[in-house]
Amino acid sequence: MKIAINITRAIAYAIMAIFVINITACKKLTSYDYPSATGTPYEIISNDGNFSTFKSAVDKAGLADMLSGKDEYTIFAPTNSAFINAGYTAAVLQAMLSADVAVLVKNHIVSGKIDVNTLSTSQNATAVSGFSLNLQKIGNLKYVNGGDILNPSMPVTNGFLNVTNTLLTSKATLNDAINTYVNSGNAQLTYLAAAIARASTGSTNFTALLTGTTPYTLLAPNNGAFIDGGYATIAAINAAAPDVLGNILKYHLIAGAKFTTAFDSVPVTAYNGNPIYFDKVNRNISPTVTQATNITAWYANGITFGNGVPANIMAKNGVLHMVSRLLPTPVTVTTLDRINTDATLTMFYALIQRASTADPKFNFATMLADPLHTYTVFAVNNTGLQAAGYANVAAINAENPLTLAAILKLHIIPKRINNINIADNGAVTTIAGTNITFLLTGGFKVQGPSNSTSIPVITPNVVTTTGLLNIIGAVIK
């Protein structure tokens, strides 16, 4: 029987199987693209284009028989994007020795059957190459070395197959991991490599840090991050003061080797002593969610990193996660305090206080001061509230709290969401359950469902200890 797997549908069926079985009782399920336990791992990766790179690697390594035999294995099959994100283009794999490709493939194979669905919290496993794997269950989601396991424990004829969006490999050093990109044709980190070399001529030798034995986690800014940060060319980086670059790098470096799964709503101190604030949005397991969006997303100061972009790239001295912007410097006060100390936001602060009396489930003042539940806030300045009909703070205090609460809910989004993480004209859901639109062409703007025109963001993406603040000059409605 020919096996034609479509990953997205496989995920959907895996989730819905128990419901379908209950409904159909003994009726044969002929609609399965993936009949349970009827195919070998090699048949699966051969018939699904999402694994074409992994299949090529298996063939070059001479391991097709291993994945077609009767010995039991647990396999973590990386998608094509997992290879690309880790810097392994087709050209890189073609240039590698077959023996090295065999090691890479074996990193993804564990002898015996491990059903990751039965994990309690965390379990270590050793691949047949000797590579160490960390399997985690957090909530109802599963991870391997920090990467999503997209459809866990699909039964195959000789064990289990798991799909992952992370390549399981390691470099000798973080510096080598960076150079993998520089030399692969997937040159996303050439500016970073130049910045490390230039900064190392100053007071801190970053090359020594990233090639040493002390482990670090590097939030690695890609080329676009440096360009957006004012370094238009490599020449601009080479002309910059070494310690200026060094201060940037220090804020992207964290002590210890940490997978993405180590970060969730708890600030972490960077190498320069300043905090980095983290948020996590779990992937949405749903039959209607496509593979491309069915990932866990992490945010550092509102900047996305993790499984949608290169992340969890291991080295013997740490882990690398790529970020698409230089991390913005935070203000070390809560969102509520930042609003309270802004002379242009006195009326909005009063609105928060007044709206907080409407419903004990939505004490907005408490919410915006709570570091365990972060929010992105669009704060309307005094001019904007006056244009909406509120003459002063007294007028705010005289308004029905329920009316103000309804207004405020349209101005608050769960988690720190930087506008660079949203596509132009992208919809973002507020705590009211209503979507607002981010418009990015010609500057960052936002628009509610009843706004006739978009509202420019005057001050964007201020990182606070409890969220992210944007200041606007009109009311979202």
Automatic annotation (TrEMBL):
The chain crosses the membrane at residues 7-25. InterPro entries: Adhesion/Biosynth-related (IPR050904), FAS1_dom_sf (IPR036378), FAS1_domain (IPR000782). Pfam families: Fasciclin. Keywords: Membrane, Transmembrane, Transmembrane helix. The keyword Transmembrane helix applies. Residues 38-168, 176-327, 332-476 form the FAS1 domain. It comes from the Bacteria. This is Fasciclin domain-containing protein. It comes from Mucilaginibacter boryungensis. The lineage of its organism: Bacteria, Pseudomonadati, Bacteroidota, Sphingobacteriia, Sphingobacteriales.
